[in-house]
Design a protein that fits this description.
The protein has 372 residues and is of the alpha/beta class. The chain contains 12 helices and 10 strands. The chain folds into 2 domains: 217 residues, Isopropylmalate Dehydrogenase, CATH 3.40.718; 107 residues, 3-Layer(aba) Sandwich (Rossmann fold). The two termini are 21 Å apart. The structure holds adenosine-5'-triphosphate (ATP).
């Protein structure tokens, strides 16, 4: 298995529009630490990137930090200020920690979710979430060795059941959420998944609920159409409820999984649990022109600022970003980060408390930096 198939990331070929000048070696990264442990883990990912920059030939990163999230709402009344959005759109890539706090809500009581606003406003339609086991001891499943669980969930990010999130109840007696899918929205995310599968083990699984929901019959019909464009990729169609079972029973059977927004949200937490928890689950939000990289976990206010959050999901998200930037040196950098994580995780004592270890957030990062 080559590097790309192992890391399961993106590579520049997944960008439809090579808007980045790949001759450049200077990348401007917008950094949004956000709230809670977002701040803790972003600090560590930046330390890794700075250490890596010194080891790569001729690559320069400029990091510009921007305020977002619950803290920014309390300060300015807007959790995603227009200036931040513009800076994200203008940057080569965005690194995001986590946003939102249960205690900080809109006047109507809803929790704020600026990370979803960001996906929608920048049209970051594809949400790849690599799930990889780095050591057999870290899985609640018995008998799996490092690398034997290795798949990517591609979550549709801009439509689906989440498209109802800003709607209000039509009456006192009824609540309704609409699952909206468009042909264009389905085509682009399914094509993204097939292109990713071509760089991995060439197997693409559609997860839907086509036995019940007409929207899912539509989704499946588009999957079947697009599949014909990729005769080198084998396909499978699985109902979402069965997938929850199969991911626990035979996670090794999957390579790339493409699914609707809400299904992807739920299955990616389950999948994170197979490889050590949310602290091991990186993610990207990819559009035609912009991309945001962030851990799949939230702000975990219970452990924020205590120095015990697991930064690995954030560090691996930074590796995804480097891979996506697509410069020869950044792709090498992505591989070095993943190799370093692999090396550190070979010793089962090298774990943070969420994985029954004793290392601090900065302690495990120090080991990863040393292994670079
Ligand atoms: P969201 O809805 O924004 O995803 P959430 O409330 O569902 O957030 P998280 O904030 O991701 O959930 O975390 C749930 C719990 O998992 C946390 O309270 C924390 O104990 C644990 N957790 C999550 N991420 C990490 C991490 N990186 N390191 C250690 N523990 C974590």
């Amino acid at each position: 298995m080559d590097f790309l198939s192992s890391i399961g990331y993106l590579s520049s070929a997944n960008r439809k529009d090579c808007f980045l000048n790949l001759m450049t070696n200077h990348f401007k990264i917008a950094v949004l630490p956000g709230d809670g442990i977002g701040v803790d883990v972003t600090r560590e990912a930046l330390r890794v990137l700075v250490a890596l920059e010194a080891k790569l030939t001729d690559v320069k990163f400029t990091f510009q930090e921007h305020a977002v999230g619950a803290a920014e709402y309390l300060r300015s009344g807007d959790p995603l200020p227009a200036a931040t959005l513009e800076a994200c759109a203008a940057a080569d890539a965005v690194l995001l920690g986590a946003m939102g706090l249960p205690s900080v809500r809109w006047p109507n009581g809803k929790e704020m979710t600026p990370q979803i606003d960001l996906r929608e406003k920048l049209d970051l339609y594809a949400g790849p979430r690599p799930i990889k086991l780095y050591h057999g001891d870290d899985s609640p499943l018995k008998g799996y060795q490092a690398g034997e669980i290795d798949f990517v969930i591609v979550r549709e990010n801009t439509e689906g059941l989440f498209s109802s999130r800003l709607s209000t109840h039509p009456s006192e007696d009824e609540a309704r959420d609409v699952l909206r899918l468009t042909r264009q929205g389905c085509e682009r995310v399914i094509r993204f998944a097939f292109e990713l599968a071509q760089k991995r083990r060439r197997h693409c699984t559609l997860v839907d609920k086509a036995n019940v929901l007409p929207s899912m019959v539509f989704f499946r019909s588009i999957f079947d159409e697009i599949a014909k464009e990729f005769p080198d990729v084998t396909t499978e169609r699985v109902y979402v409820d069965a997938m929850a079972l199969f991911l626990v029973r035979k996670p090794q059977a999957y390579d790339v999984i493409v699914t609707e927004n809400m299904f992807g949200d739920i299955l990616s937490d389950l999948a994170g649990g197979l490889v050590g928890g949310m602290g091991m689950a990186p993610s990207g939000d990819i559009g035609e022109k912009c991309a945001v990289f962030q851990p799949s976990h939230g702000t975990a206010p219970d452990i924020a600022g205590k120095g015990i959050a697991n930064p690995v999901a954030m560090i691996l998200s930074a590796a995804m970003m480097l891979d996506w930037l697509g410069h020869e040196q950044t792709v090498i950098g992505a591989r070095r980060i993943e190799d370093a994580v692999q090396q550190v995780f070979a010793d089962p004592l090298n774990r943070t408390p969420d994985m029954n270890g004793k290392l601090t957030t900065s302690g495990i990062t120090d080991l990863i930096i040393a292994a670079l």
